[in-house]
Amino acid sequence: MSKVLVINGPNLNLLGSREPGIYGATTLADVESGLRAQGGTLGVEVLCFQSNHEGAIVDRIHAARDEDVAWILINPGAYTHTSVAIRDALAGVAIPFVEVHISNVHKREPFRHHSYLSDVAEAVMAGFGTAGYGLALQYIAGRLG
Ligand code: DQA
């Protein structure tokens, strides 16, 4: 069964209570269990990881290569707008990935409009709320064919 690694970056552990007007009421645990269940239906194994630390995310991306992860689904949180290290890690392991944002970052502050990942991502989702994770997983399952 193909493996998909779901990575959530800083502050996404607070989903459900963090700025609910922007990010909604669904918790990260709910998102992750929903993705695991959806993965069961789609025939993919979903692995989940969240960290508030840039280096830990880089290390998890490196480990994915040894685990034979086929795709990565990543919401890098604020590191989207700052992290050359996460970009380089994703490019370095050469695992295709989808970048997901719960909010429509393009409708928000100008500093959220630039992503260090989008031009190396296979696809980018923004503004679909937490439903975006499931839509991205569905896309990935289709690409795995
Ligand atoms: C986010 C958007 C980022 O700008 C922000 O820093 C986040 C979450 C989103 O999911 O909409 O932490 O990635």
UniProtKB/TrEMBL annotation:
Catalyzes a trans-dehydration via an enolate intermediate. The record marks 18 as: Transition state stabilizer. PROSITE patterns: DEHYDROQUINASE_II (PS01029). Its EC number is 4.2.1.10. Keywords: Amino-acid biosynthesis, Aromatic amino acid biosynthesis, Lyase. HAMAP family: AroQ. GO terms for biological process: amino acid biosynthetic process; aromatic amino acid family biosynthetic process; chorismate biosynthetic process; quinate catabolic process. It catalyses: 3-dehydroquinate = 3-dehydroshikimate + H2O. GO terms for molecular function: 3-dehydroquinate dehydratase activity. The gene is aroQ. Belongs to the type-II 3-dehydroquinase family. This is 3-dehydroquinate dehydratase. Pathway: Metabolic intermediate biosynthesis; chorismate biosynthesis; chorismate from D-erythrose 4-phosphate and phosphoenolpyruvate: step 3/7. SUPFAM superfamilies: Type II 3-dehydroquinate dehydratase. CDD domains: DHQase_II. It comes from the Bacteria. Substrate binds at residues 75, 81, 88, 102-103, 112. The active site is at 23 (proton acceptor), 101 (proton donor). Homododecamer.
